Amino acid sequence: MLQSAAGGLGLFASQLLVQESALADLVLAEDAVQAPMKAQNVVAVAVQVNGQRHQLALDSRVVLLDALRERLGLTGTKKGCDQGQCGACTVLVDGQRVLSCLTLTATLEGRTVTTIEGLAQGDHLHPVQAAFIKHDAFQCGYCTPGQICSAVGMLDEARRGQVSHVTADVRRQATLLDDAEIRERMSGNICRCGAYPGIVAAVQEVHSGRQAMRTWGFADEEQLAWARQEDGHETV
After folding, report:
1. How high is the pLDDT of residue 127?
2. pLDDT tens figures, 170-205
3. What's the pTM value of the predicted model, to 2 decimals?
4. How is 136-182 classified by DSSP, letter by letter?
5. Could you give phi then psi for residue 169, rounded to 5 degrees?
6. Which residues pair with 113 in a beta bridge?
7. What DSSP designation does 118 have?
8. Do 80 and 147 form a contact (C-beta atoms < 8 A)?
9. What sign for the dihedral angle of Cα 128, 132, 137, 138?
10. Taking phi first (over 0 means left), then psi (-120 to 50 degrees means alpha), and beta for anything else, what does residue 232 get?
């Protein structure tokens, strides 16, 4: 029985090695197929990004997201689903929010692109950026650049009177945003951490100009000492 078991294990091991070798050959073949190819149908595109003019020569199939990240080094814009469903790649083109993973760079000749890096003026944050920090409107932060760019574009849409599916009075010249309006208009931006209450509060504060109630605060030393005692740790 022991000899049979040992023989079976040996056969299994040899078969496993053969399979691993075949998989390794397959991976090498795929790498060879996917090796960088010479760009085809190259087009010249002049586009202004965050106030700076860029002259790009790239494949006509290159989307704006890849041009920003790989050609211009602007990695604040994130690649999420790469299918236009999560909103992580949202940027502004001529002030309008677009999904950069679905926007061909070749279509942006002479147009203006604003990414998350271009919203702040030096050390002075954009009001939406400041509100996101104040209301803790993010956790992992991956979707945050797209959320902020989308919020900036959405607020401008509301000021121009553009309506949404939940707008009660479509005759208003400017749309007043309640929480339902904000949720509907921001629904194309997914936060997998579930930071939606903070996002809505941040957008509402910027829109209304009223100080929204913050649901968190910095702990003082007395509170920290009490928390350590509750956890069974001595205070330092």
Report:
1. 97
2. 777 667 899 999 999 999 999 999 999 999 999 999
3. 0.74
4. T--SS-SSHHHHHHHHHHHHHHHHTT---TT-S-TT-SS----HHHH
5. -120, 105
6. 49, 93
7. G
8. no
9. positive
10. left
